[in-house]
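Students often ask why inverse folding is considered easier than folding. One informal answer: many sequences map to the same fold, so there is more than one right answer. In these notes we will look at a single instance of the problem. The structure comes first.
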C-alpha cells in the first residue's frame, strides 16, 4: 500500500472515531459539564505524555499562551453544548445540527478576517438553513437539543476560524494541547463555582471510567495526532471531503447502538440530506472558486 492510500485509510478511521464520540456521549451517564472536564483532562495528559516520549519542545511565547488559553474556553463551550444536545435529544439530531458549522464559518470567517462574504457561501448557507428548518418542523420534540446543537456549531466555527489564523505560526498539536489545558482550567473554575467538583470529585462507575477513557484518549488525543499527521501528504480538498463524513459515520453508529431510539421522521431525513449535501458541495465549490 502506497503512502497516499495508507493515509487515506488512516483519515477515514480517524473520522470514524470522531463520529463515535456522539455514541460515547450518550453511553456515559453523567452530565455534559463533568464529562467534558474529564475528557479534556485525559486528552491533555495523553498529549503531554506523547510530547515527553517524543521529546518535543512545547515552549511558546506569553502572547501565544494567552491566545491558546482563551480559545480553549470556546473549545470547552463547544463540547459542553454538543454533549448536552445529545443528552436532551438524540445523537443523529445533534450531529446533523453540528454540520451547520459550515454555515456559521462562512459568516464568522469573513467577519473575523475582515473579508467579503462570497455569494456562493450565502447559497450554501441558505441550503443549510432550509435543512435546519425541516428538522425543526418535523422534530419539534427535540427543540432544545436542536438549539444546543446549533450553539455547538457556532462555538466550533468560532474556535476553528481563530485556529486557522493561529496555525500559521504554531504547530497544530501544540495549539491543541494548550487549548485543552485552557478548556480544563475554565471548566474547573465553573465546577468550583457550582460546587459539582467538590461534591462529586472522581466518583464514577467503572463503566463510565471506561467510556471516558476512550473519549479522552482514542477519540481525542490519538485521533487528533493521527488526523494531523496524514494532512501532511493529503490535499486540503480530500481532507475536507472525508472529514464531512463524520456525521454520516456517527448517525450510522448511533443507529447500530441505539436502534429505535435513533429513528426519526421522514422530514428529518430530508432536512439531514439537504444539510449533508450542502457540506459536501462546499469544498467542491471552494476548490473550483480557487482555480478561477
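Output (designed amino acids):
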Amino acid at each position: 500500500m502506497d503512502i497516499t492510500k495508507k493515509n487515506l485509510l488512516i483519515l477515514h478511521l480517524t473520522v470514524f472515531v470522531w463520529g463515535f464520540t456522539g455514541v460515547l456521549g450518550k453511553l456515559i451517564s453523567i452530565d455534559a459539564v463533568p464529562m467534558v472536564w474529564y475528557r479534556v483532562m485525559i486528552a491533555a495528559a495523553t498529549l503531554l505524555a506523547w510530547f515527553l516520549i517524543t521529546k518535543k519542545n512545547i515552549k511558546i511565547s506569553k502572547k501565544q499562551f494567552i491566545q491558546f488559553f482563551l480559545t480553549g474556553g470556546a473549545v470547552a463551550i463547544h463540547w459542553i453544548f454538543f454533549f448536552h444536545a445529545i443528552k436532551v435529544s438524540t445523537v443523529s439530531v445533534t450531529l446533523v445540527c453540528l454540520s451547520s458549522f459550515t454555515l456559521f464559518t462562512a459568516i464568522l470567517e469573513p467577519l473575523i478576517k475582515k473579508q467579503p462574504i462570497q455569494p456562493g457561501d450565502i447559497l450554501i448557507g441558505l441550503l443549510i438553513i432550509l435543512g435546519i428548518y425541516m428538522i425543526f418542523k418535523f422534530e419539534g420534540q427535540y427543540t432544545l437539543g436542536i438549539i444546543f446543537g446549533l450553539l455547538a456549531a457556532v462555538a466550533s466555527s468560532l474556535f476553528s476560524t481563530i485556529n486557522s489564523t493561529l496555525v500559521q505560526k504554531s504547530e497544530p498539536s501544540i495549539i491543541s494541547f494548550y487549548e485543552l489545558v485552557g478548556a480544563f482550567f475554565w471548566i474547573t473554575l465553573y465546577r468550583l463555582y457550582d460546587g459539582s467538583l467538590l461534591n462529586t470529585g472522581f466518583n464514577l462507575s467503572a463503566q463510565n471510567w471506561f467510556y471516558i477513557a476512550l473519549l479522552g484518549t482514542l477519540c481525542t488525543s490519538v485521533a487528533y495526532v493521527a488526523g494531523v499527521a496524514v494532512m501532511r501528504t493529503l490535499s486540503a480538498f480530500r481532507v475536507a471531503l472525508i472529514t464531512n463524513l463524520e456525521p454520516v459515520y456517527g448517525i450510522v453508529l448511533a443507529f447500530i447502538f441505539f436502534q429505535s431510539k435513533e429513528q426519526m421522521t421522514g422530514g428529518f431525513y430530508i432536512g439531514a440530506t439537504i444539510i449533508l449535501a450542502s457540506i459536501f458541495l462546499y469544498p467542491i465549490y471552494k476548490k473550483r472558486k480557487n482555480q478561477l
